[in-house]
Amino acid sequence: MRIGFFTDTYTPQINGVVTSIRLFKKALEALGHEVYVFAPDPDHHEDAEEVVRFLSVPFALQPEMRAAAPISLEALRLLDKVDLDVVHSHDPFAIGLFGLRVARRHRVPYVHTYHTLYPEYVHYVWETRLTRRLAERLSGEFCNACESIVAPSTKIEHYLREWGATVPIEVIATGIDVERYSQVDPERIVALKRRLGIRASDRIVLFMGRLGREKNVETLLRALWHCHCAHARLVICGDGPHREELEDLVAELDLVKRVIFAGYLEKEDVIAAYHMADIFGFASTTETQGLVIGEAMAAGLPVVAATDEAVEDFVIDGECGIVTPGRPEDLARAFDTLLEDEPYRRTLADAAFRRAQEFSIAHQAERLVAHYERAIAVYDRPRGPLPRLARLIRNARERAPLSPSRRRSV
Fold first, then answer.
1. Nearest Cα residue to 312 out of 293, 335, 338, 299
2. How far is it between the farthest Cα atoms of the chain?
3. Distance from C-alpha of 167 to C-alpha of 148, rounded to nearest angstrom
4. pTM for the predicted model, two decimal places
5. DSSP for 115-138?
6. How many CB atoms lie within 10 A of CB 153?
7. CB-count burial class (<10 Å; 0-12, 13-18, 19+) for 390
C-alpha cells in the first residue's frame, strides 16, 4: 500500500504529533508499505527521498510552528509518479487541505487523525466563547469532509460526535516503542542526574512535554508545594511559551530548590529521564491521548494524573497509576502515597510496564492498516465539494450551540 502523510507539523519540531507520524511511518514501512510525508520546510532539514517539504515561515504567534504555502511543485511532481492508495492528514491546515485536494483529484479516500483539541488552543489567537464554538464546529465540519477519522482516544471520538461529525470514527491510539523506552542505560542516567544536580536522596516527580498553558504544569507546581515528602523534586523536561510564567511561579512559591527546568532533551536523555524518576506527573486535561504517559509506562514509571478520559484510556486507577481530581492537594496526596510506600510504587510500576505493552506501535500500525483497507473497500466517490474556509465558518456559526454538559468538561 502507498500512503501519503500530509502534515503542517514535522521535524525538527518536537511534539506528540511529530512523534506519532514518525512512529507510524516506521512501523508501516516495517510491514512493507510505502509512506510519503508532505510537510513544512524548516530552516534546516535532512530528509529521505520520501519526504517532500513545502515552503513555510514561522507562525507569528508561535514561532516554533510553521505556516506553509498551500502548494508545492515538488509535491505535485512526486504525486504524478506515485499512485497513492490513501491520503492521511494529521491536521486541517494548509498541507492537510492540500492533501484533501490530492485525494479528490486522484479519487482515493481521505483519512484524518484528529490529534489536537483545537478549542483548547484558541487562547493563542483570541479566546472568546465564539472562537471556542467556531473551533468546535469547524472541527466537526472538517471531519465530515473526510472519508473516515482516526481518534487517538475515546475522549476525542465523543467530542467529535458531539461537534457534529457523522463519518466513521475509529479509536486508534499512537503506539509506543516499548522496546526502546524499556531499555536502561545506567551511565546515561548517572550523567543526566549529575548535569541536573539531582542528589541520591531526591525523589523525582517527572513531567515531560511542551510548556504551554494547556498542559497545566502550574498545577503540578502547586501540588509539589503541598507535598509532605521533604525529598520530592519536580523535574520539568521540555520548553515552550509558558516557561517564563512557570519560572515566576516557582519563585513565588519558594520552590526554586525543588524544581528543575531541564529544557528539551535528546531522545536518549528522554529515556534516561523516565528511568531516573520515581513518578510521572501529569495534570493536563486537554490531551487527545497523552503519548508521554505511554512512554513513561513503557519505562516502568507509575503515573499520577488528573482525571481525564484520554488519560484513562492508558492509566487504570490503582493498578498502574493513580488518577485523581486535578486539584493540587489531590495530586500531592497521590505523590506522597507513592513516594512514601516503595512496595506499592513498585507494584504499580510493574503493572504500568505490562499495560504499555498492550499499546505497542507494531500492534497499532496493524490496526491502522486495517482502517485504511476498510476505507478503500467502501470508497465510492468524494464526499461532496471541497470545503472552503468561508463555508465551514458559516456552517459552524449557524449550527446550534453546544450542550452545556460537555462544553467545559475538558
1. 293
2. 64
3. 6
4. 0.79
5. -S-GGGGGGGT---HHHHHHHHHH
6. 24
7. exposed
Domain pair 2-175+362-407 / 179-357, same fold: yes
Per the CB < 8 A criterion, the answer to whether 291 and 19 are in contact is yes
Q: Which of 29, 35, 17, 79 is nearest to 54 (CA)?
A: 79
- Residue spans per domain, the chain: 2-175+362-407, 179-357
Would you state the CATH architecture of domain 2-175+362-407? 3-Layer(aba) Sandwich (3.40)
DSSP H helical segments within 211-242, as ranges? 217-226
Short-list 298, 263, 268, 267, CA closest to 280: 298
Give DSSP secondary structure letters for 223-286.
Answer: HHHH---TTEEEEEEB--TTHHHHHHHHHHTT-TTTEEEEES--HHHHHHHHHH-SEEEE--S-
Which backbone phi and psi does 324 adopt, to 5 degrees?
-140, 155
For residue 70, give the C-alpha cell. 498551500
| Cross-strand partners of 263 | 237, 238
183: cell is: 531499555
Q: What are phi and psi for residue 17, nearest 5 degrees?
A: -65, -45
Q: Calculate ∠ Cα 141-146-148, nearest 5°.
A: 115
Measured distance CA(299)–CA(355) in Å, rounded: 11
Q: CATH: 3.40.50.2000, 3.40.190.10, 3.40.50.2300, 3.60.40.10. Which one for 179-357?
A: 3.40.50.2000
> Which cell numbers hold the place of 217?
504544569
- Check the CA dihedral 188-191-192-198 and report its sign: positive
- Residue 284 vs residues 189, 305, 306, 367: alpha-carbon distances, Å: 27, 8, 7, 27
pLDDT digit string (tens) for the chain, length 410 residues: 999 999 999 988 878 899 999 999 999 999 999 999 999 987 656 677 899 999 888 776 666 678 888 888 999 999 999 999 999 999 999 999 999 999 999 999 999 999 987 776 655 555 677 778 888 888 999 999 999 999 999 999 999 999 999 999 999 999 999 999 999 999 999 999 999 999 999 999 999 998 989 899 999 999 999 999 999 999 999 999 999 999 999 999 999 999 999 999 999 999 999 999 999 999 998 888 888 999 999 999 999 999 998 898 889 999 999 999 999 999 999 999 999 999 999 999 999 999 999 999 999 999 999 999 999 999 976 555 555 555 555 565 565 454 444 433 33
